[in-house]
Amino acid sequence: MSVGAPRGLASSGQKPITEILHPLSAAEESLSPVPDVPVGGGHIPNSSSSSGGGDKEAGLTNGTPVETSSPASVSSLFNRLQLDDDLDADARDPFVSTETRDLFVTVDDPKKHVSTMETYITYRVSTKTTRVEFDLPEYCLRRRYQDFDWLRTKLEDSQPTHLIPPLPEKFVMKGVVDRFSEEFVETRMKALDKFLKRVADHPVLSFNPHLNAFLSAKDLNKRQGLALLTKVGESVKQVAGGYKLRARPAEFSAMGDYLDTFSQKLGTIDRIAQRILKEQTEYLTELREYGTVYSSWAGSEDELRRPLEGVAGCVTTCCGSLEDLSENVSQDFLPVLREYVLYIDSMKNVLRKRDQSQAEYECRLEAAVLRKQEDRTPVPVEVEKCQDKVECFNADLKADWERWQSNKRQDFKQLLTGMADKNINHYEKCQAAWESLITLLQDKQTEDKTNETN
């Protein structure tokens, strides 16, 4: 086998490298010399130093043409968005049509457990499957957060070349968020359900034996197998720790730049949304007090009682609508942003592992070339294994990147459509309430003129 010439490698059932069209580049580019790249650092450098980088600013565009004509009504707008969703799913997401789902999981029914030692929440995990790897077609078990954390750690250790979906953050600030409150538990339950569904829908992760144990075993053995995997990871770091990459493929540099830009934009949106939510909460408090004033005033003004009660009713309607809108932001909008911030960290972690794998391969290859020049010894087998590992990393990372981009498009289309729907409903309710007040005032004015005439 020629070490210098990469060969195709079937990887975990995914498509070969040559058949994968990367979302950030039309075709795979050849390696070109670039400045040395440090391995193991937390920052993924800018692609302007890579071929094709130029001075272009990284953007967040999906390349989809925008329909500029206005729909006839709000309902037609949402119908059109849903239709576009279906068309995009068929045209751009091959995973939907090529994969047959035979594993269905659900996380629901949170329950609080109180003992003398600790207080914790468990969630019901229901499974339905036709796979032969499972002894039964259905399972129903209870798991707590640390069990989900165990599963993710196992997946990350046993499938290092794949992107593992993130879990919701474990730790919360005491005194700021009550981790046993109904709202917090509901939000965490939704996030755990999404995590498990993403794993179950993955063509490789869903066949991992640790997932099988998580879904079917009554008791999880959480200690087995960690020591060996930790030693393997430490050996890779020791081999490649002091080595700098000769070149990173331009497409992986583009991935890093995209993630940096995407992270910045999500962070900005999250901060502004948090500030808006805080201001809405304060405004809601003032608005409730404002409506109460009109209600008390109506009790002392017989002539103005109906108009004043009408104003109080309008304010009450607006309060309820604004409360629903704020609840949507806190329970539906912000959790998706935070999930993708964590997703970005997971993707960067896989990119760092890929860089370490490439560094290990280049380090061993250089050492083998020097030995061959000195005593003409053949290329060691471990060098070929390292090359296979790099190619496996590249293929799996590209496939998972495509899948992640597909999920991201669908998630944000659904999120933004829901946000638009909630805002439209909010303003329609407020408008209808105030329009009813105008009708009431006009009726009152007509009644007063009639009384004066009589």
Distance between the ends: 109 Å
Query: Can you give the mean pLDDT?
Result: 77
- Shape, per Cα inertia axes: elongated
| Number of beta-strand segments | 5
Estimate percent helicity.
Answer: 55-70%
Walk across the major sheet and give the strand order.
Answer: 2-3-4
Indicate the proportion of strand residues.
5-15%
Determine the structural class based on helices, strands and strand pairing. Answer: mainly alpha
Rg, rounded, reads 29 Å
**What is the count of helical runs?**
9
| Order of H and E elements | EHHEEEHHHHEHHH
Task: Report low-confidence residues grouped into runs of 5 or more.
Answer: 1-38, 40-87, 89-98, 224-240
Main beta-sheet strand count, sense and barrel state: 3 strands, antiparallel
Keywords:
454 residues; mainly alpha; three-stranded antiparallel sheet; two-stranded antiparallel ribbon; disordered N terminus
Structure explained in plain terms:
With 454 residues, the chain is mainly α. The chain has nine helices and five strands, in the order E-H-H-E-E-E-H-H-H-H-E-H-H-H. It has helices at residues 74-92, 94-98, 145-158, 182-201, 209-216, 226-240, 250-298, 305-375, 381-453, and strands spanning 37-38, 103-114, 119-129, 138-144, 244-245. A hairpin with an 8-residue loop joins strand 3 and strand 4 (138-144). It is elongated. 21% of the residues are buried. Residues 1-38, 40-87, 89-98 and 224-240 have low confidence and may be disordered.
